Amino acid sequence: MNRRLPPPRLRKLPRTLPPLHHETWDSYVYRLAAANRISHLELHEHVDNRHRLHPDPLALVDAISDLSGHPRDRLLKALPDLRTSDLTQGLPPACHLLDHGWRVQAACTLCLAAKGVFTRARHWVRTSTRLCLRHGRWTDTYHDQFDVRPLPEIIQAQRDHHDLARKHGWQTAVVAMRQAGGWCWRWWEDGRRFRKQRDRRLRHFIPPGAGTYREDPRLIASAYPDIVALADLLASPELRGLPFTGNSQDFSRFIREVRARVAPGYRYEGAGVADPLVRWIEEERYYRTLPNHPFPMPNEPRTHNPEPLDQLTRRLNDLLSPDTDDRGSCASCGTKLKAPKSNKLFCSTVCRSRNWRRQQNDRALRDAASRQQTRECPVCGVTWLAGLERRADARFCSGRCRQADHRRRSALYDR
Which is more confident, 292 or 186? Predict the structure, then answer.
């Protein structure tokens, strides 16, 4: 005697649709509601109504199976967020649970149109996906998609981003992209430097005179090649550790890589404390001196709070004073030297030059404080201590007074 299956507790919708590959279940329910000309909110209430699903709630995959008419296996293979550990036992390895290396993104409208879908849909993609390589459309944001094929460096950056994630892992790629993006945006916005190539790409998307904002997808797409190039440097264990080997040639090689990738003409010696690269080197150098963390990778979690730079410098100067017998660390940055009993005081010429400039600055400040020499602005009459409040050879208190004096002298010469 053949046993008949129990009837479904939800009635099948009049019009059904096949699910897309790696589509989210919410996007599929939205497309089902649009095909049947009903609100997707009403369809969600219909699925979640416990009184209609008597005697007990129905699993989400079973509810969508009853509404669409497709079997559970097909829905589990196409909709990854419906999978659970007990439902994926009989599925192939490619249909197992997704890890954190996947995220939800809008599907390319041209790819959907080729499949006969003319409504918006969302699907699961790798974290390194920013655009559709088949049609060259930027799909990373919630805004309208746009074509990036006239700028082939953006498409090549997407391929490089995929290679970066495959080579070093998606965790390392995510952290490296976050660090590279922080450096680039600090250089572009705070210092207004190294933005020539980014502005050249941005002019292709935005006409001259039109405004933009920080989260503008066109601005993000224009900055994408530079960020990927710098992230490739930070994700490599060999290149990332060059500034901390104690060799000046390795440090120079790291700076040359930064110049060639994203910051042409960058000078580490002239950069201030607020420079993102300088801050990263100081924090990373201190982090590598901690116990049990000699050479951390970008994907390693950091559980400590690094000290501010002024406290760290003060503590290192106290520990590495000239009268101490321990000469195994650099007297400027604290990096361990190659030979513990070496007579060297510094790990590189950069630290030696930095220490010399610091000593010269301190000596000049002490001399200026001892002289107590005052200067007076010839335009406005403001006085200041020469060498302390302003430069020792300063004649004016501000650039405005300098311009006023120049205009006055120019007017006298014209007469």
Answer: 186
Query: Coil, strand, or helix at residue 227?
Result: helix
CA angle 189, 296, 346 (to 5 degrees): 80
> For residues 328 and 347, what is the distance between their CA atoms, to the nearest angstrom?
10
Question: Prior bond to 55 cis, omega within 30?
Answer: yes
Residue 178's closest CA among 120, 124, 100, 230? 230
Nearest to 12 by CA among 71, 56, 57: 71
Reduced to 3 states (helix: H, G, I; strand: E, B; else coil), residue 170 is helix
Of 54-68, 304-318, 325-339, 374-388, the least confident: 304-318
**Which three-class secondary structure state does DSSP give residue 243?**
helix
Cβ atoms 184, 281 nearer than 8 A: no
pLDDT at 181 over 90: yes
pLDDT digits (tens, 9 = 90+) for 346-386: 788 878 888 888 787 777 767 766 666 777 888 877 777 77
- Residue whose tokens read 């409040």: 389
CA distance 58 to 42: 17
β partners of residue 124: 104
**pTM (2 decimals)?**
0.67
Please report how many Cα atoms fall inside a 13 Å half-sphere around the Cα of residue 400, on the Cβ side: 2
Report the amino acid identity of residue 40. H
Residue with tokens 């503008």: 216
| CA–CA separation, 252 and 256 (whole Å) | 6
Place of tokens 């199976």: 65
